[in-house]
Amino acid sequence: EYISRAPDMNLCVRSKYAKKVRFDERFIWAWETDFGYRLTRLGKMKYVPDAIVYHKVPIERMNVRYLRHWRFNKGRSSFQESCAGRRHLPQPWLLKECILSGMSAINNRFLGKEESWIENELQFWTQLGQIAGGLCPKKQVPR
After folding, report:
1. Rg (alpha carbons) of the chain, rounded to whole number
2. Are the CB atoms for 86 and 74 separated by under 8 Å?
3. Is residue 101 within 8 Å of residue 127, measured between CB atoms?
4. Where are the alpha helices (DSSP H) in the chain?
5. Are the CB atoms for 49 and 21 separated by under 8 Å?
6. How many other C-beta atoms lie within 10 A of the C-beta of residue 130?
7. Contact partners, residue 43, CB within 8 Å, separation at least 6
8. Is the dihedral of CA 46, 48, 54, 57 positive or negative?
9. Which residues neighbour 7 within 8 Å (Cβ) at sequence distance 6 or greater?
10. Among residues 23, 25, 128, 114, which one has the least CA distance to residue 70?
């Protein structure tokens, strides 16, 4: 299936095309959409849903601190994309879910349920990032 943009997905591009197009770093969000549109001027882009992508992460970064940081930033950026950079107070349901995820993580950790507490804690960090993204949005750089 040929597509005109590739938002929020892993993208493999031949280096000769990537060097011609380059990312527009003036965008805070939707840079991949702009990149995809400009790539299609040079040819076709194909979506391969069953492709497998491996992320090479150095072993020293594979720790809980790194995962917390990554999930917080993931939540923050996803919220900022959805509200187009405007400041928003967090919705009550998001605050409630964040608190419940945090409490579930603590409870499951004390009960020794390792998989459950890690999942709950990472969900907590994502939700906390969404809350922070609404309170402290990044500003888009003017053109």
Report:
1. 18
2. no
3. yes
4. 15-21, 31-40, 64-82, 92-110, 114-135
5. no
6. 26
7. 17
8. positive
9. 30, 32, 33, 36
10. 128
Residue type at 57 in one-letter notation: V
Return the structure tokens found at 75: 């939540």
Residue with tokens 């805070």: 28
Provide the b/e sequence for 19-37 (b: ≥16 CB within 10 Å).
eebeeeeeebbbebeebbe
Smallest Cα–Cα separation from 45: which of 82, 85, 9, 81?
Answer: 9
* Residue linked to tokens 């879910």: 97
Six-digit token string for 18: 């990537």
Say whether 53 sits in a helix, a strand or coil.
coil
122 Cβ neighbours under 8 A, 6+ residues apart: 67, 68, 71
Residue with tokens 């400009």: 38
Query: pLDDT in tens for each of the 143 residues of the chain?
Result: 777 666 555 677 788 888 888 777 676 656 677 777 788 888 887 878 787 777 777 888 878 888 888 888 878 777 666 665 566 777 788 888 889 988 998 998 899 888 888 888 888 888 888 888 777 655 443 33
